[in-house]
Amino acid sequence: MDxxxxxxxxxxxxxxxxxxxxxxxxxxxxxxxxGAQQSDSEATFLSQTLSNRGVKISTFYYSNxxxxxxxxxxxxxxxxxxxxxxNLGISENRLCVDLMTERLCQNDMNYIExxxxxxPDWRGHPFLRAEVAKFLSYYCGSPIRLNLRNVVLLNSCCAxxxxxAMVLCDPEDAVLVPTPFHSGFLFSAQMYTQVELIPxxxxxxxxxxxxxxxxxxxxxxxxxLLEAKTKNKKVKGLLLANPQNPLGEVxxxxxxxEYLKFAKRNELHVIIDETYMLSVFDETIIFHSVLSxxxxxxxxxxxVIWGSxxxxxxxxxxxxxYTHNDDVVSAMTPFGxxxxxxxxxxxxxxxxxxxxxxxxRVYLPINHSRLQEAxxxxxxxxxxxxxxxxxxxxxxxxxxxxxxWINLKRLLEPCTFEEELVLHRRFLDHKLILSRGKSYMxxxxxxxxxxxxxxxxxxxxxxxxxxxxxxxxxQYWIQKMLEDEVTS
Amino acid sequence: MDxxxxxxxxxxxxxxxxxxxxxxxxxxxxxxxxGAQQSDSEATFLSQTLSNRGVKISTFYYSNxxxxxxxxxxxxxxxxxxxxxxNLGISENRLCVDLMTERLCQNDMNYIExxxxxxPDWRGHPFLRAEVAKFLSYYCGSPIRLNLRNVVLLNSCCAxxxxxAMVLCDPEDAVLVPTPFHSGFLFSAQMYTQVELIPxxxxxxxxxxxxxxxxxxxxxxxxxLLEAKTKNKKVKGLLLANPQNPLGEVxxxxxxxEYLKFAKRNELHVIIDETYMLSVFDETIIFHSVLSxxxxxxxxxxxVIWGSxxxxxxxxxxxxxYTHNDDVVSAMTPFGxxxxxxxxxxxxxxxxxxxxxxxxRVYLPINHSRLQEAxxxxxxxxxxxxxxxxxxxxxxxxxxxxxxWINLKRLLEPCTFEEELVLHRRFLDHKLILSRGKSYMxxxxxxxxxxxxxxxxxxxxxxxxxxxxxxxxxQYWIQKMLEDEVTS
Lengths: 488, 488
Description:
Chain A is of the alpha/beta class. The first copy, chain A, has 2 domains: 3-12 and 27-96 and 366-487, Alpha-Beta Complex (Aspartate Aminotransferase, domain 1), CATH 3.90.1150; 108-354, Type I PLP-dependent aspartate aminotransferase-like (Major domain) (Aspartate Aminotransferase, domain 2). Chain A is 47% helix and 12% strand. Chain A is built from 18 helices and 13 strands. The first copy, chain A, has a 7-stranded mixed β-sheet, sandwiched between helices. The first copy, chain A, has a 4-stranded antiparallel β-sheet with strand order 9-10-13-12, covered by helices on one side. Chain A has a two-stranded parallel sheet with strand order 1-11. In chain A, a hairpin with a 6-residue loop joins strand 9 and strand 10. The longest helix of chain A has 34 residues, at 356-389. Chain A is globular and about 70 Å long. Chain A starts with a helix and ends with a helix. At the A-B interface, helix 2, helix 3, helix 4, helix 6 and helix 7 of A face helix 2, helix 3, helix 4, helix 6 and helix 7 of B. Chains A, B: This is Probable inactive 1-aminocyclopropane-1-carboxylate synthase-like protein 2.
């Protein structure tokens, strides 16, 4: 199967010839697709209809979310659509839908009262913020009781990050981001903020500046900051994720403190995304929230984000900010006007987060056990592929998060982002979506994030497809190696 | 009661001395309050913490939403807080909470399935967009069957307007807006879009250019467009509301067509807000949706917004765009990433909008009858006040929407926006929130929008407070007149 042909099917559907619902007519998207030509009349019409920024945002979206759009229009279903896309590219926990459905259908959830139907407090209903403060106090292991006044609820972690970037940075200001870093915030930064994210590359191999694979050393941060200043960039913050995404690792407590001290020394805000804090499924690993620290080096410049991922309810569309900085809370408030969450959803969320007995006795043990099992299954399949095809597949992930960061650069010839894209498209040919390293701003081609928190039957099918794609890629790789030998 | 003292209470609570939850410490807000001084150290800290745009958005918000913030922290309750704020300033229908609660608690509403818990289609779940298309086809009286492909769902009408302005306009582009116009969109335009809203003043009095009070004549639009062009402004669109807000009137079909033709002649987009289309409670009034027209002059540049107001569920946080323009749908899609609605809310909304039997036989007749009654009650109270105080109170509203646009300029001496603010604060002293003309970009001081869709007991209490404030204002007015006589 040719990789370019393989992806033509969803593109056709999107271009309006399909019968499915995703058949929007995205002229904008076509422009961005490789090989697509835009006629003069189309361009004129587009420029008359859409603003420049409208075209820019669309183009960025459709070049980064092609797979997602295709998936929405052609999702795998065991019976109804067994040839549809399996999506191990987006990160959402699908392992506990049964538990969550059961909990959400209980009587205490279906409650309506007048304030839930009316305009809310733009920071989130006080009853929910109080519950969130209690929840974070407990699960982050905070030495002090956290306060509802420091909580802001918006309709996704990305919306929280976007609003925070608006409030802390002016256009053209910059934020340091160790990469690979998850693509959600990278896209969010594009939409409104005009904030530049400066990647601080953390490499996979040991070098002079990289004493451990994927370890963010303070020296790298210092160097990146210095380089940015040399270029007259105004660096306002440092963006971190702990547990890391896509690396699937947690920060050591000492490292965390070092990052916070570095930020304080340089008067940088630290935005720390702790989205997967309850998805540490290996019991030997200890997660340290910044909110657990006895004292924060710079509490007014430390801002924590948490959201829906730990409960597998990305469809709830909520994200939470916790910050000790009252001015930031105050300045974030107006953003609730355009990014708020429905009252009935806020109510359910309160019931959910407040049911500590269920979370501790039912949800977390079962969820962690299922994550462990799915993770183990994928590792086993990767080892089988190594044996089958006789090449080493290295990967990161030590037992937290929903994903494994896999090194497939041995299958690229040459090892370039063009060839990474070829392999990515080969997965798509097999109706399997992974996310590729380039979308994480990673500088080494050949890495992919594989999300494993999927039902066993679908995960099995996905790994079968993965194996088929790898087999095909191996043949392609051999062919290229032979051609190289002939030409050299 | 002194008007400045009167408003100091909520401000104090907001500044952090209160015990309530609204006690954020908004230095930003203090800056904006009349008479508040900002110390150098405060200013330095703020400028170090927040971005310039963060300060700007906050300042705009807290100067326009002071009343709302006060209300959220000190809401009236018959038993628990009978001295709390009554809010006839924001527009939300509180008359049918009983009906809505009953409907939302029925069994068909509390349903969970996997896709509702997961990442959605950013345009809105297809099942809901299909229902919206059917709903609009029927209630807008569309001659063709509307298509789900032309529907975009975001998390409020304001978010829809904001995204639309992003997609159709570049920064500094302009949109014509007949004023008075409701403040929601005006605030939305401030947050992200940087689009200039050019007011086209529609006056209350008959003049050479105003042959009818509050009538938007094409000549005015032509003149405003010409003036804007003379100033080298790029005018991209025309923003309309039908039914009008705050005027409480509907557009005649012929006028509507004229506006659309004017827009087509000048290659302007028309964004038309039909939010109150089902809140026309006087049966003799006929509402014409643009979607009911046999043919639109420029379908690719005509975009309709509808939302939660007709059902009194502003807390659902949803807004809908219907546009025939596929490119606009396509370009709006990425905005769902930061403005989407939770799956469970989308499901309930689908059940609600699809229950035509309940809407037609139960909800609309009862809602319209209650609106009519509340409207009639307020009119009666206004007439009683006229008799009591011996001055004429004129107002607009012919039987649609949730509000009356009231002329109180007879009580201002002199008739300025400063004196309008004095009267506004006098209402606040009496713990009554109305919204004043200036926030609708209206050029004549002395007009207020009074929202009457409130429970009878609260409406009675609110009108008592209104009367007390008017009485006090009358005394103040007499005093000022006497002083004027002495000094002249």
